[in-house]
């Protein structure tokens, strides 16, 4: 089966070239070469360099591939003309390993993290040390939403815990992050690893659950915030890389108090933008905010993957915000900064239309998670003035998603008729209405204009190339542009604040008629 000089026929490719690993999809995979032909073996044969994180290793000698090729070659002797039919492959696909039943993190141990918030550096930073401190009630609600916790003792004392809880409420893994007083990460760990080290140093046997838990190959097998998907079945999703960024997104853009509100989820790291995790988002409208990277590699990689996932997840739509890619300086791209690095420099109250006073009351310390009354979701009032500056909207070249949300245009639940919140704290169906409030003068309807525009656009073929709408706006995706604009004008029918959306649709129609 080997060469005459007893050397192995199949060897790892020499040099520094790496391929994408079939298991973790990281470009750290070394493939086997057939030294007799100089060709690669089938793409599943090779070894991933990420031995601590992936460990994929398929040897052509161990699974019978080498023997099979050798036996086939022995049968072809004294042949002057090839008479055997050409075959695409000379191997049988290895049988997939039976899927391992997941072992969950011990729930009682997890519950012990849900206290000591007065010692939690991350939480106390948000209350006192950031430039625009958050209210204690807001912090408490975010803690409750994501089940954030604290490492109270040991070498990670004061660190924050980010649990990955699946849709059925099982804890899959608990990431531990230490922060300095500027909320920059100074250390990363996992709670199971901390517990294991503690027992090992003190010559104590590991708990039975932990022995089983550490033997499994994969632990972070769900999204951070995955448990919120069943609780908020119709909400659009904002997807980021790190749990910290998801927390910041919630603090800035608000908790999911209404069906139109975003729920912020995180994948864990760059290579975790995988189908196995994202299939939980089936049927959702998902805004994606990749971290910055040199030359925009992460943005392009995630965007390419998302297109493939959409084909496999009916009703799912991934919309990528290129805001950071367009505006961030090269230094931030090199550092791999993310949305949280930019948000924390801004006043969160402007994102939520909160009244800003000269003096801020000193926030109270959060020591335990307490029950908090839901805050009313504040949206545009009917008497607000139209913005004098142009409103930037999805589908245009200069899209500024943050500014779009700041102006009150929260993502809609596409495919369903949107309704507006009437200002009550109870979010039951009885408190939802198509009107902003009772006793107010009804705005003039745009029904005729909307119907006329819908009829026109339904009977033409939309441009697939970018369309320059005016000197400051270029529509890069006409389908998305129309989808968001029609949803907005229908939801805010007659509200003059949103008249620019109707005007832009009419402007696009006129442009297409005259060209």
Our estimate of the beta-strand percent is 5-15%
The shape, in one word, is globular
What's the helix count?
Answer: 18
Radius of gyration: 28 Å
Number of domains: 4
Low-confidence stretches: 1-6, 78-82, 86-91, 357-361, 368-402, 404-442
The quaternary structure here is single chain
Helix content: 25-40%
Q: Helix/strand/pairing class, anyone?
A: alpha+beta
Q: The biggest beta sheet, please?
A: 5 strands, antiparallel
Number of DSSP strand runs:
17
Can you give the mean pLDDT? 78
What does this structure look like?
It is a single chain. Strands 1, 2, 3, 4 and 5 form a five-stranded antiparallel sheet that branches. Strands 6-7-8-9 form a four-stranded antiparallel sheet. It is 31% helix and 13% strand. The chain is built from 18 helices and 17 strands. The radius of gyration is 28 Å and the shape is globular. It is of the alpha+beta class and 515 residues long. Helix 16 runs parallel beside helix 18 and helix 17 crosses helix 18. The N terminus is likely disordered. Strand 4 and strand 5 form a beta hairpin.
Name its key features.
single chain; 515 residues; alpha+beta; 4 domains
Quick structural overview:
This protein is α+β, with helices and mostly antiparallel strands and 515 residues long. It contains 18 helices and 17 strands. Helices cover 31% and strands 13% of the residues.
């Amino acid at each position: 089966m080997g060469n005459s000089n007893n050397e192995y026929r199949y060897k790892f490719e020499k040099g520094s070239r790496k391929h994408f690993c079939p298991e973790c999809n990281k470009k750290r995979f070394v493939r086997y070469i057939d030294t007799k032909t100089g060709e690669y073996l089938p793409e599943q044969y090779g070894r991933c360099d990420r031995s601590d994180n992936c460990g994929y290793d398929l040897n052509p000698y161990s699974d019978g591939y080498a023997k099979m090729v050798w036996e086939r070659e022995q049968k072809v002797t004294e042949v002057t003309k090839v008479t055997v039919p050409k075959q695409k492959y000379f191997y049988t696909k290895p049988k997939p390993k039976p899927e391992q039943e997941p072992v969950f993190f011990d729930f009682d141990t997890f519950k012990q993290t849900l206290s000591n918030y007065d010692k939690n550096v991350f939480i106390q930073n948000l209350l006192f040390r950031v430039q625009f401190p958050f209210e204690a009630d807001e912090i408490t609600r975010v803690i409750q939403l994501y089940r954030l916790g604290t490492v109270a003792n040991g070498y990670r004392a004061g660190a924050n815990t980010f649990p990955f809880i699946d849709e059925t409420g099982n804890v899959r893994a608990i990431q531990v992050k230490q922060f300095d007083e500027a909320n920059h990460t100074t250390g990363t760990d996992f709670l199971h690893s901390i517990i294991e080290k503690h027992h090992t140093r003190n010559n104590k046997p590991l708990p039975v659950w932990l022995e089983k838990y550490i033997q499994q190959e994969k632990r972070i097998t769900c999204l951070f915030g995955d448990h919120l998907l069943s609780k908020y079945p119709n909400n659009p999703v904002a997807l980021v890389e790190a749990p910290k960024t998801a927390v910041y997104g919630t603090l800035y853009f608000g908790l999911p108090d209404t069906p139109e509100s975003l729920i912020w989820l995180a994948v864990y790291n760059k290579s975790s933008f995988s189908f196995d995790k994202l299939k939980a988002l089936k049927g959702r409208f998902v805004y994606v905010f990749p971290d910055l990277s040199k030359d925009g590699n992460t943005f392009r990689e995630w965007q390419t993957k998302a297109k493939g996932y959409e084909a496999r997840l009916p009703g799912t739509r991934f919309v990528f915000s290129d805001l950071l890619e367009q505006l961030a300086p090269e230094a931030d791209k090199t550092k791999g900064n993310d949305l949280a690095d930019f948000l924390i420099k801004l006043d969160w109250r402007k994102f939520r239309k909160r009244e800003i006073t000269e003096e801020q009351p000193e926030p109270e310390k959060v020591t335990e998670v307490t029950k908090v009354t839901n805050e009313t979701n504040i949206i545009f009032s009917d008497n607000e003035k139209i913005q004098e500056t142009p409103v930037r909207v999805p589908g245009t070249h200069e899209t500024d998603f943050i500014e779009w949300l700041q102006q009150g245009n929260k993502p809609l639940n596409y495919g369903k008729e949107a309704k507006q919140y009437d200002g009550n704290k109870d979010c039951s169906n009885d408190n939802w209405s198509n009107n902003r409030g009772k006793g107010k003068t009804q705005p003039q309807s745009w029904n005729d204009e909307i119907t006329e525009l819908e009829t026109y656009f339904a009977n033409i073929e939309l441009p697939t190339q970018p369309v320059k709408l005016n000197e400051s706006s270029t529509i890069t995706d006409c389908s998305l542009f129309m989808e968001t604009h029609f949803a907005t004008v229908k939801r805010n029918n007659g509200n003059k604040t949103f008249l620019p959306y109707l005007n832009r649709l009419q402007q696009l129609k006129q442009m297409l008629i005259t060209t």
